[in-house]
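Order emerges. For instance:

***
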Amino acid sequence: MKFIETPPDAASIMESTRAIGYSLPTAVADIIDNSIAAEASRVEIFYSPTEKYVAILDDGSGMNGEELNRAMKYGGISPLDIRHEKDLGRFGLGMKTASLSQCEVLTVVSKKDGEISARRWDLNEIRRLNFWALMELSPEEINSIPKVDLLKNFSSGTLIVWQELDRMFQGTQNIERIFSEKMNAVRDHLSLVFHRYLAGEEGLKKLSIAVNNLPVEPSDPFLTEKFTQALPDEKINISDMPPIKIRSYILPYPSKLSKADSKLLGITEDMQKNQGFYIYRNKRLIVWGTWFRRAKKEVLSKLARIQIDIPPAFDSLWVLDVKKSVAVPPRIVCQNLDTMIENLAGKSKKKWTHRGNAEGDKKFHHVWQRLKTRDETIIYEINDKHPIFLRLIEKFPACEKNFKNLLKLIAASLPLNQLLIDLSGNVEIENPATYSEDMARELLKIYVDGLLGGEVNKLLDGLAKDDTFKNYPQLIEEFRRSEVYDRL
């Protein structure tokens, strides 16, 4: 037996890896992973619609010429190699595949120990020569690279420049508008994916990111510094590997939040879509808004989110992809996740349904009642035994039949399908029958003084258990002590 070396075709490999599936936001995030691994505290992103480039500059440790050659090599580091605990890399492909998914010319300039080195992959040259023709740039060529003067002012750092942005525009006319929209999406993505670095979480080196000199603010999907209820931390231990850390959250009810906070919680302004697990690798968000097909995304569970921190040692077990945007939990972890999903989703449902007293609470009179038919169908009817309705019939007995028919008509006209659509989205539905104290006081006067009359004490006892007045029991007692009551 003998071995035959068959090196891959350079042009074919580069063209193939361009189609891995990076979006512009995920590609930029992959570059910033390298900045974090290089201990950078500052990342600046620049773009120019007129000169048509994207430049990403950091103040990390930088690379010398030899290190830069290795960084530009495809598969320069094996995914099986043991990485530094703070390294966000995985396959040794990220910088190249992420960059060339967006452009045809990738230039990397790096400064270390006072030395500036630059290398370039130019796909047009690779196609022409059809071998791994990495270009080493001369000092004169380096000086013509956008934003290189900023790098020269750093003691160390790296500048990555994308040019010939063929995948970003594809012949579109309004380049300035498209550029602006795409970079806004980049900003939103980075604010979420690196929110723990941007916020300066304990144990992390704080990172600042700016896009064309405008700072990127952190977007915390749990609003941990505001209203969110965090459950006790948990850990999953697997043999002698580092523990998987888990923290569960119940989000605030939307009506308690500002519009800005609601947008943060929704991420894409869809809370139901973004319920579920939030997977972090070295505190960098990898995957979010999924139950990994172990539960359905229901309306009542959309307040539930679970933060899971996985160490790099679990990369192979979690089937982390090249883009670092897909992670599949191993079977042994899934066994623990099922219990967490059940517990947290139950707490979320309770928070949605327990606003005041539940509809089935026998202590109070409810205008609407939920009934189940013999065939297990759920229907909603108006409670014609409500004390207010009973007193109306008592006062106007001739209208009883018409009155009950009116109640049935209202119940039959309830737009259940539209309600389901609204509740399934992220539209905040407010119940107009949630009365303020002043409104309740005015209704009390109308009920007793103007409309019903008769056995006032019996009526007041009933109203005290009514949905409208259960939150204002003092109003009933105030009325009993009033001059109006004395006259009745």
